[in-house]
Amino acid sequence: MSREFDVIVFGATGFVGELTARHLARHAPDDVRIALAGRTEAKLAQVRSRIGGRAARWPLITADVDSPASLDAMAARTTVLCSTVGPYALYGETVVGACVNAGTHYTDLTGEVLFARRSIDKFHEQAVAAGVKIVHSCGFDSIPSDLGTWLLYDRARSDGAGTLGTTTLVAYVKGGASGGTVASAVGLIDEVTADRDARRIAMGPHSLTTDLQRESPKQPADVAVIAGADVDPELTGSLAPFFMAPYNTRVVRRSNALLDWAYGPDFRYREAMAVSRNAILSTVGSYSVLAGLGLGVAAIAAKPLRPLLNKVLPKPGSGPSERSQAAGRFTMDVYTATTSGRRYRARVAAHKDPGYSGTAVMLGESSLALALDGDTARGGAPAEPVRRPHPGRRARRCPRGAPARAGIHGGGHRAGLSPERVSRDAPARPPRAAGPGTTRRHRLGPPSRRARRRRRRRGVRQRIAPPTGAIRARGPDGPRRRRARAAAPTGTAPPPRPPGRDGRRTPPRRPRYYHPDLRRR
Asked: Which of 20, 67, 59, 54 is nearest to 36 (CA)?
């Protein structure tokens, strides 16, 4: 059935909602029909004007989670509803119900295991009957985890290397947690503290799976310090607990269950975080992170400290500046050893803030995949065996994957999301061209701040090409700007140079160029 829109961004007035709409305005195909939805039309108009460009023609839709009629009307107008309205435990259930009733696909950013469990219990069978795909956790939680593990399985299957054994994700993260993630964590801790059944669901390793009889009974602990050598022989030191492991691990195990436990009977999944490459510092840092997580949970659970934490923690709907987001990045390496003994590694990475700009890219592309790719999930770059790593090897595109089935899923591969879609927004850096007078050291890139300090301490002054328009030469009074000579008339000889100190006409001394940061003061 044809719909008026392909994608509606619900909650576009929020921080991540606006980032998602901005990404769609810049990278969605021209023929995709997009609309913005929220509670206040005036705020939606402000967001649309800030985005500019093609977004100026996008319609605005007013809808409120407290008005089921407005949600039903909104869901009936679109193919995919992309929701950024959280915490989802408070506002997500009615939106999911409206999408299932209207036959509309749904994506969100939830990292709340209790909400996902309630959504499965209430809407999974109805969504399967209606052919609707409800795909939770389409951001940093849990696209890299789910998609990276599926890539390992797909490559091992194509190589005939057997099924997956113990699989570990190692996260290298630079960025901050969003205000929505913090608010969801606070709400989850409050509910778990007050309800024993909720605590049992949250702590269960298979809380999102369908058949506990077919699950592997022993799964690794979610919060623990892991030795790097236990993950892969190339890793050293210790790995710290990853704060999103209690949710991401459940999503990966649910995907395994939806694939009819294709990852294998020995599949065990865990996640960790790298804090340092030094063996001693990584061990100290890992146990510090473990202690910090325990103290953080205890502080949030203590109600007398809640007013103080509310002043310190980020607020929902707020976020960092574009400059701070540009400094963020994440690299998620997923290691596994198959039943045949072969080792594989998959990598999902981007030079974007994981909780903000990176999440907006993943959510937007997940929505486009559901709206445009139909029932076929796109394949991606295959995982490469770790036996012979090659730093210059580029990812190759593999054949199309299995069809995305109807129902409630978590992560990206069930939505048809591919690594090319995730990384398409990060342009590759072109190599720096070597100019005249450029040394090999400078052709490989400018020196780092630490290298410059080290060279200053050693008294080393690196000779590099000068910046355009700022050529400097050494004179008797120190560095001075060289004045450009007036061009001589055509057909006339250049003016003679003044004699040197010994009375002879000496050739001009070759100027010595210095980096401004390395010049002695």
From this structure: 59
Task: Check if the beta carbon of residue 239 is closer than 8 Å to that of residue 288.
Answer: no
The tokens of 5 are what? 């829109």
Return the biggest CA–CA distance within the chain.
100
* Burial degree of 133 (CB within 10 A; 0-12, 13-18, 19+): buried
Strand order in the sheet with 34-38: 60-62, 34-38, 5-10, 78-83, 105-107, 133-136, 407-410
What are the domain boundaries of the chain? 143-352
Distance CA 101, CA 82 (A): 16
Question: What is residue 93's DSSP assignment?
Answer: H
With beta carbons less than 8 A apart as the criterion, state whether 86 and 316 touch: yes
Query: How buried is 280 (Cβ within 10 angstroms: 0-12 exposed, 13-18 middle, 19+ buried)?
Result: exposed
Rounded to whole angstroms, the Cα distance separating 356 from 19 reads 8
* Beta partners for residue 10, in sequence order: 37, 83
pLDDT digits (tens, 9 = 90+) for 240-298: 999 899 999 999 999 999 999 999 988 999 999 999 888 899 999 999 999 988 888 88
- Segment 52-96, tens digit of pLDDT: 999 999 999 999 999 999 999 999 999 999 999 988 988 999 999
Distance, in Å, from the CA atom of 398 to the CA atom of 380, rounded to the nearest integer, reads 6
